[in-house]
Design a protein that fits this description.
5 domains, mainly beta, Immunoglobulin-like, TECT2 protein, six-stranded mixed β-sheet, signal
């Protein structure tokens, strides 16, 4: 062992076993191991024995109790030599004076070189580090004691240095405070020394060395620690200039104002920031064990001008629990734990231009018991302060990806319409399928299954399928923008319908039982849109046209061995495709561009039309004034080269020299 403590293990049942330790069991005359007996104890000289019993294994710990500090002047109870302890130990395990096991230990322990004692309170005078090294031995960190691996430490005796002589610190920290530098003339023997080195080398003593700069800290700057908080003021005294669409709303504590929202994975995130001018309506499932309260409603919101506004909160009690409690895992009993929680929160932001003027919050509370599943609802709506209708939107009038497409039925007294696709549930039957609105910019494909009997009339089947598909399109027009007004017909585009059957086309009625051709089972919705501008840097997208068409299939009854009194299934689908077109037709290529492709910058690495690009205002790598000056200087050199290459200039120059 080389340390003051060592562990070993005794395997077997230690009940009734006596452990003892014997120091120096070797006979000094013969050099042989002495015959051990079981009369020892758990302490011998400077050694202690400790046993921790277990089930079938016991841990045996041998510890040294003496001081291992190296002796200082006029000190006792210490180590006089670096090799402090050299002993042989024997650990015995006996039961009823019968030896069961023996362990022989050879201990060689060196003294501890760390300093223990009183440190002088006298202040150390540190020289100017710019002109003198801090010390001839920087690794000498402990006063009155030897620092390990510091070979220049004067407190280290030769015996101690032998322990780490091959691992000494190198470089400046190890005491080489004035190493020869490469620019010194005496360092010419360095490999790859250039021929002009003797003319430019430095002749100086090692006392004046550039390595002194290693100890010179000079003027320092404190690094800025990045913060997770976003500063609203870019400079002192400059107020926040308002929100832009999509900016996170901030609180008085300069933190995000958060409301639970759904992530891309469909799960609810409790600390999701609320974005300016972006409405949402989400539902989150929770139970009593995982329920967490959101931000308190007394948090003040930054209005966008540096002022803070308080939320106007109205609390209401839920009367119909069935709309929120979707499942009960166990019947209610008197011992069931219940808690008053938030069932729904509706936020209405009243805004004007880039600022928030008022916040109205309606909170619905109810009792949630253990074992119940709660469907929480959170809604956020932004309204314009100057709008006469609460349903009127503002901000970027164009569509944003993921927002419902606005539809209208201009042939009805109630002009609001809908443009939907199916959202199947359960077995996927059309009778139980629900509707979900068409979302802008997101292509989708959905459908359901219609039950059809073997004796189904083909004409009635076509009419039934067409009626199911037409139920998705309860509109005659689609809004060009997300804030299209129902009173202005120019804000809407008419839906182009391609009927599945023309009056001039003869539709087969189907003469075979169980087979019906020309069934319009597929509804195709094509929406053409374009970028027509930008609002605050966000593209403004408008719908240009909407077309609805049908695709027909041949339906055939499918059955097993017996087809009587059974029904087959007809899948009907609806697909939505968004097609983006340029706002303006692209400029057609000229004949020169089509024939001489080497001048096309998009097809070649060398672009001759951009030869003078660095001197144009499109180049932003340098200030325009510098680029112009460099361009004029280059033109002057070119003109000078042309003049000097002229033979007349050579004759004039020769005559001038004569």
């Amino acid at each position: 062992m080389s340390g003051p403590r060592v562990n070993s293990f005794f395997l077997g049942n230690s009940s009734g076993v006596n452990f003892s330790i014997i120091s120096a069991p070797i006979d000094e005359e013969t050099g042989k191991l002495q015959l051990a007996d079981c009369s020892g104890s758990e302490r011998a000289a400077d050694w202690d024995l400790n046993v921790t019993p277990g089930m079938n294994i016991s841990r045996v710990t041998i510890s040294l109790t003496r001081n291992l500090q190296l002796c200082l002047p006029n000190a006792t109870d210490c180590c006089t030599t670096p090799l402090c302890v050299v002993e042989a130990l024997q650990v015995l395990a006996c039961r009823n004076s019968v030896l069961l096991a023996r362990l022989l230990i050879q201990a060689e322990i060196f003294a501890n070189s760390s300093f223990v004692g009183n440190v002088s309170e006298n202040a150390t005078i540190i020289p100017n580090q710019a002109f003198r090294p801090l010390g001839s031995c920087p690794c000498d960190l402990t006063a009155g004691a030897c620092d390990v691996r510091c070979c220049c430490d004067p407190e280290c005796t030769p015996d101690l240095k032998e322990l780490f002589s091959k691992s000494c610190f190198t470089g400046v920290f190890g005491g080489d405070v004035n190493p020869p530098f490469d620019q010194l003339c005496s360092s010419q023997s360095v490999e790859y020394t250039p021929e002009w080195f003797p003319f430019l080398c430095v002749q100086s003593s090692l006392n004046n060395t550039p390595f002194l700069g290693y100890f010179y800290h000079g003027s320092t700057s404190t690094p800025e620690v990045p913060s997770f908080k976003i500063p609203l003021q870019t400079s002192p005294g400059r107020l926040f200039t308002g929100y832009r669409q999509g900016d996170p709303i901030m609180t008085e504590e300069n933190e995000y104002f958060t409301i639970p929202q759904q992530s891309l994975a469909g799960q609810c995130v409790g600390n999701a920031p609320v974005a300016y001018l972006q409405n949402f309506d989400v539902q989150c499932l929770t139970n009593l064990a995982s329920y967490k309260e959101g931000l308190p409603h007394d948090v003040r919101i930054d209005s966008g001008t540096g002022d803070f506004i308080q939320q106007s909160v109205i609390y209401r009690t839920i009367t119909d629990m069935g709309k929120f409690i979707t499942q009960s895992e166990s019947p209610h009993t008197a011992e069931v734990l219940c808690q008053n929680v938030t069932f729904a929160e509706h936020y209405t932001f009243i805004c004007e231009d880039k600022n928030i003027e008022k916040i109205n919050v309606t909170v619905f509370l109810g009792s949630l018991c253990d074992g119940e599943i709660l469907t929480q609802r959170f809604t956020v709506k932004f309204l314009n302060l100057k709008s006469t209708s609460a349903a009127e939107l503002f901000g970027n009038p164009g569509y944003q990806v993921g927002k419902p497409v606005r539809a209208a039925n201009m042939n009805a007294s109630e002009t609001s319409g809908s443009l939907n696709v199916w959202q199947p549930a359960g077995r996927g039957l059309c009778t139980s399928a629900t509707y979900t609105p068409v979302l802008f910019g997101l292509d989708s494909f959905s459908g359901c299954v219609l039950e059809v009997g073997i004796d189904e009339d083909c004409s009635l089947l076509r009419g039934n399928v067409t009626e199911k598909l037409d139920s998705l399109i309860q509109a005659t027009h689609v809004g060009k923008r997300s804030n299209s007004s129902y009173s202005d017909l120019n804000d809407w585009v008419e839906i182009i319908r391609l009927d599945p059957f023309n009056s001039d086309t003869n539709v087969s009625t189907g003469s075979l039982k169980g087979i019906c051709p020309d069934i319009p089972a597929n509804l195709n919705i094509r929406i053409i849109f374009a970028d027509v501008g930008a609002v605050q840097g966000i593209p403004r997208q408008e719908i240009l046209a909407v077309q609805i068409s049908y695709s027909t299939v041949i339906w055939q009854f499918q059955c097993g061995l017996i087809c009587e009194n059974s029904s087959s299934f007809l899948p009907i689908t609806a697909s939505v495709q968004f097609i983006k077109v340029p706002a303006q037709p692209p400029i057609p290529l000229t004949r020169f561009q089509m024939n001489y492709t080497e001048f096309d910058c998009n097809r070649n690495d060398v672009c001759w039309p951009q030869l003078f690009y660095p001197v144009t205002r499109f180049y932003t790598g340098e200030p325009y004034s510098q680029c112009l000056a460099k361009g004029l200087f280059l033109a002057f050199l070119t003109l000078l080269a042309v003049i000097m290459s002229n033979p007349c200039f050579s004759k004039l120059w020769n005559s001038f020299l004569v």
